[in-house]
Amino acid sequence: MRNLRFLPLALVALVVAALVWRLANPPDTDVQSAMVGQPVPAFTAPAALPGKPTLSTADLADGRAKLVNFFASWCVPCVGEAPVLAMLKQQGVPIVGIAVRDRPADLLQFLSDNGDPFERIAFDPESRTQLAFGSAGVPETFIVDGHGIIRLQHIGPIEPGDLPGLVKAVKDAQ
Amino acid sequence: MKRLLFLIALTLASPALADSSLPPAYWANRQLPEETKEAQAQALMEEIRCLVCQGQSIADSDAEIAGDMRDMVRRRIASGEKPSAIRAWLIQRYGAWITFMPPSEPATWPLWLAPFALLVAGAFVARARLKTRKQR
Q1: A35-173 falls under which CATH superfamily?
Q2: Hey, are the CB atoms on B69 and A131 less than 8 Å from each other?
Q3: Which of A93, B56, B80, B136 has its CA 20 to 30 A from that of A25?
Q4: Peptide bond into B33 cis (omega under 30)
């Protein structure tokens, strides 16, 4: 029993150490989609802008691997991501967009300010398509292969450093 | 003068919100007219985790995406879908993490068994203590 005298102290020290460790290494709060590896969910969405075709499940299985970018005109990191999407388009990566909780006028302004790399843009005013993909915010980008299988989820803005990896992932998904 | 202007500008400044300017979805903050269906929706919304304020249920959260999820839940319940089907749909997309009622699977067994194990351990400690007290 004598040896157990310091047990409570040791337990407290252990708890404190665990708390300090957690403070120093905050948990990853990104929500991973469980749809990676699954076929694109069935969805229908109206076109976001006149003159720009919308996007449907069938368009995502047209034989070409592509990026599906969830974005919004009110999303500040999306502005930072725009030049990187333009570079991806330049390298021949097809990009389609899903505009989350947006208004056509705001969207038009966003695209004229930041460039428009999108082949198609679907309108998602109530986040329904976003929820169907298992996505939790903007910007988020999925790589869908030519058969319409989701291959990869990129959470947060695409940085210039992510470019080579994404280009390769799209090539691999072809 | 410059300082005063600066102060005025500061008080007028609004924070940059990471939210859209759209109003909440139709059923986000509206109850279903049918009482039993609203009760079903409410029960499900209280056990589904919000994707951004992760300690809150979508029933409690003011986040926009939580409003959109409530809208989706109410729409589906109104159209006759079962809560279990909606829960399964969400788990298929976000994993079991999305519900506050984690399904019983091997990884969660310790979680379910821990209270009983602690009770048994407590009983042993109490018994040992009472015994020594009696002996005195």
Answers
A1: Glutaredoxin (3.40.30.10)
A2: yes
A3: B56
A4: no
